[in-house]
Amino acid sequence: MIRLIDFLAALVGLILLLPLFIVLYLVGLVDTGSPLFRQERVGRGRRPFTLVKFRTMKKDTASVATHLASAAAITPFGRFLRRTKLDELPQLWNVLRGDMSLVGPRPCLYNQEELIAERTERGVFDVRPGITGLAQINEIDMSTPELLARTDAEMIRSLTLGAYIRYIILTITGKGAGDRVRGVDS
C-alpha cells in the first residue's frame, strides 16, 4: 500500500511540479553551473543507490555528511533551497524508481560507519530510506548517530498510514530542519 502511494505521489508530484523544477534548474545552472547533485547513498538492504537533489553547495565541495560540511560552501541560492526544502524535490525521482520512500530513514553515506553500524544493529536497513521521517520532524540529524538510529527504528516499528501522512504534512508545512550545516542551518 505504501509503495503504491509513494509511486503515485511521486509521479503526480513530478508532473505537477515540472514548471518549478525547470525554474529551479535554470537558476541552479546560473548559480553553480551544475544544478543537480548526485551522490551514492546506502539504501534498503545496504545496497547503493544514487540520490538526486538540487545542488546547494559549490560544485567542488567535498563529499561529507552535511553536518561536517563547511558553511562557506553553501551558495546564496543554496541557502534558499535548503531553507524551503526545495533541494529535496528531485528525490521524487528516487521515490518513483523505488530507491526511496516519501517516509523513511534519511539515507546516509557509506563513510558514515558509526551510523551504519547503529542502523544495522536496529534493522533500519530493512526498509527503503525516505525523504522525511520522525527524525527529520524532530530535528535529529546525522551528527548524533545513536539517537538517529534509535529514532529511525522507533519510526519503523510504529509507522502507520496515518503517521506516514502526518510526517509528510509536517515536513511540507515546515516542521523540522533535517540535516543541518553548522553555522548556516542551526
Offer a quick outline of the entry.
By secondary structure, this protein is mostly helical. Helix content is 46%, strand content 11%.
Q: What layout of secondary structure does this protein have?
A:
Blueprint: H1 2-16, H2 18-32, E1 36-42, E2 48-54, H3 76-84, H4 91-97, E3 101-103, H5 113-121, E4 130-132, H6 134-137, H7 145-158, H8 161-172
Parallel strand pairs: 3-4
Antiparallel strand pairs: 1-2
Helix pairs in contact: 1-4, 5-7
Write up what this structure looks like:
With 186 residues, this protein is mainly α. It is 46% helix and 11% strand. It is built from eight helices and four strands. It has a two-stranded antiparallel sheet. Helix 5 links the parallel strand 3 and strand 4. The longest helix is centred in the first third of the chain and has 15 residues. The protein is globular and about 45 Å long. The N and C termini lie far apart (36 Å). The relative contact order is 0.16. The mean pLDDT is 90.
Structural features:
single chain, 186 residues, mainly alpha, two-stranded antiparallel sheet, 4 strands, globular
